Amino acid sequence: MLRNLLILSFLASILNLSMAKIYVSGSSDMQIKIWNDSSLMVSRNISQRITCMDVDLLNYFVIVGTDNGKLINWQLESDSTISDNGNELTEVKSVLVLNSSYCLAGYNEFIIFWSLSDLKQIQKISDTRFGNIVDMKNLSSENIVLIINKQKNIIVFSLINNTILRVNLVNEEGSLDILNRSFIFAPCVVNVAGDFCLFNLKNDCSLSKTNLKDFMRYNIFPALKILNESFGIYSSYDTNSFKSQFGFVNFKTTFYTDKFTNINKILSLDILNDFIIAGHENGSISHFNKDDLKLIKTFIGHSPGFSTRVVKKFIDTSLIQSKFSTLSTNTALKTEITTYSSETTTKIYQTGVTSNLPTTIQTTALSTISKSEISKAETSTLLSNLRHFSFGSSLTTEIATNTFYTKLNNQINQSFSIFTENTNEFLKILNSKIDLNDCISNCSGNGICKLDDNSKYVCECFRNFVGSKCEINILPCFSNPCRNNGRCINNNKSYTCNCFSENNQSSLYIGKNCENKVDLCEDEKCSDNGVCFDSGKLAKCKCFRFYSGIKCEILSSEIQIYKILIRTSSIIAIIILIMTYLLMFFCDLINLLDRKKTKTKKYSTKNITKLRYIN
């Protein structure tokens, strides 16, 4: 009946609040631990160092890879572990749950398909092109697995014919994450090394990239994670300065921020609704707010000195909430919710929890529920059943000895207390025409659900949030308007950007949003022997041929020799010219003197010839 749909919607919403922080961590201290927030629920020592991990959310399996080549399946329902039947001795580099039946493990130059429940080897595929595998991600819609290795390649592997379709060189190693074939977040090289890009998988399985950031430093990226189509998070490690960073990137504007620097190296990241979990190299675990990466807490998760190699969400109740709150007829839903007639059990696979509710779930929208479809007597019966909500008879004998299920069952019972302890109030809600749709989403976690005019539950939003579900953040800084690492400061309805600067130096950026860069070459002439260019943080000179130095002030030996030769030649030429002029001067002077002597002689001859003798 439709009444059950409403109940399940409420239950899913409350489960989402009470159990959204359940996750699992694995460490080189040989411990697998399941946490609720920062409280340890249960742990398991597998006597082998953990190198990688994945989880099966449907069956409550934790699959870990170890440094001695073994796969181990920790099955929570029976609280038992199963090891693979193989004889591999090399370290398991990555493990990937493909579906509820199979998983894939990556090693050095080969991969192995394993059955999930008993870890029996299905097929081993060896190929040197696999290289030293670092990470694997499943593109289930395309039946493709993307593999990144230490040889700086992204390998496209087909699950249809179990062959490598293409090897794409990305020139960088690290983790990767994928949203769809057009949205692959992975390391790359923009100019030097240690950058990240968005890749698009083309039809020929080649990759085209969009540069996101040129870090101008040699980074490796132990963890990359996509939050949504607009934002992603990353942990990086500078191999030169040995410093670690943690920050976020805006995929649309390519704006990025190193939110934390000099943080202990983060090896793994995952997302649980409103917060981010991070596993550190020193064994600690941190929680960050998903919206602004504000640090919530850090605590010792594993033995000091042993790294928390991987963290994974373990119960994703947000999936239940989204499916039941917008329930409609579709094949995907039918495969996840098994519906029986009355007197049988409805099983919600996402939680592994069963209830003995005698019901048939109708795939009809909540908005169609009317008062006439819900009777007080029927609702009382349902609430009575809710009081005995459990894990099913098949598990009743195990709960007493299974710490995890005991604690999980206690949480569920606490979550249902709002219904079982306030039956009359709940009956009034069910028998009314009150519109509950806005509150099913828990006001997006940004408000409080309140009854308005006895006809509709509405969200009373916290400060700085608006919308029917409080889904809109109106803080000016929420959209990250400050570019180039500028720090945004909210000023009521406006904002101010403090442009980024290092070591108390003047900022390289100006403008309202720090969008304009200062012309670093304005006063740099490079000694007139080169051309100035902006290197990112400094003005640098590209020298002409035969010149070197920071300011192109150093002449090469060849130029010095040329200059000496030119100088010497010039001096010799000047001397020759001077001597030539002097020679010409003396020649003219001699000629002048000769002319004067000749003229004197002529005058003397004429006077002698004119003399006469007279008696």
UniProtKB/TrEMBL annotation:
SUPFAM superfamilies in UniProt: EGF/Laminin, WD40 repeat-like
Protein keywords: Disulfide bond, EGF-like domain, Membrane, Repeat, Signal, Transmembrane, Transmembrane helix
Superkingdom, taxonomy of origin: Eukaryota
Disulfide bonds listed in the record: 439-449, 461-470, 543-552
Membrane-spanning intervals of the chain: 571-593
InterPro entries, per database record: EGF (IPR000742), EGF-like_Ca-bd_dom (IPR001881), EGF-type_Asp/Asn_hydroxyl_site (IPR000152), Notch_Cell-Fate_Det (IPR051022), WD40/YVTN_repeat-like_dom_sf (IPR015943), WD40_repeat_dom_sf (IPR036322)
GO terms, molecular function: calcium ion binding
Signal sequence, start to end: 1-20
EGF-like domain span: 435-471, 473-515, 517-553
PANTHER family: CRUMBS FAMILY MEMBER
Protein name: EGF-like domain-containing protein
